[in-house]
Amino acid sequence: MSSPLSNDEPVNDRIIPLADVPAPSAHPAAATAAAAADPSGFTRDPLNTLKFRPQIVDALAKVYDPEIPVNIYELGLIYDIDVDTDANVLVRMTLTAPACPSAQTIPLDAERRIREVEGLKDVKVEVVWDPPWTKDRMSDAAKLTLGMF
Q: What is the spatial distance between Cα 28 and Cα 33, in angstroms, rounded to a whole number?
């Protein structure tokens, strides 16, 4: 009985590419830069993002919606935290509802807190509505605090 992985068949012939995965670029650096580029010209630096993310998360954990006793990070309002090579920060966040009474103050408070992180240059907090926020984005700690378990 022959093995399904016999040596006479090339292994690559059995790999089925996924339809939604782009073909690899001829130049790996170009593919990495394209994946990290933002339409606004912001280019994410994975190393700086990794370096500053814990401090940014700590800063965001000090920001609360005045009507909810859970910080915006645990509420799942923060969608993306990116830092570029120059230590500029782009945070994409949402709010629990478009008509949130604190819609103007929460993003400003988040920006102010992030600006307190040493070593960062500029901070932009962008409010997005897609995808819409749901309770599923909340951490287990937030759900426990709000009695949602």
A: 9
Q: Output the pTM of the full model.
A: 0.73
For 125-138, b where at least 16 C-beta lie within 10 A, e where not — what string? bebeeeeebeeebb
Q: What is the tens place of the pLDDT at every residue in 32-88? A: 444 445 556 789 999 999 999 999 999 999 999 888 999 999 999 999 999 999 999
Distances in Å between the alpha carbon of 120 and those of 58, 77, 109, 111, 135?
14, 22, 16, 12, 31
What order of strands is seen across the sheet that includes strand 123-127? 78-83, 89-93, 123-127
Q: Supply 39's token pair.
A: 């339409």
How far CA 121 is from CA of 84, 85, 88, 89, in Å, comes to 10, 10, 5, 8
Measure the CA–CA gap between 16 and 3, rounded to whole angstroms: 20
Asked if 133 contacts 96 with a C-beta cutoff of 8 angstroms, the reply is yes
Residues 6 or more apart whose Cβ sits within 8 Å of residue 69: 145, 146
Local structure of 14: helix, strand or coil: helix
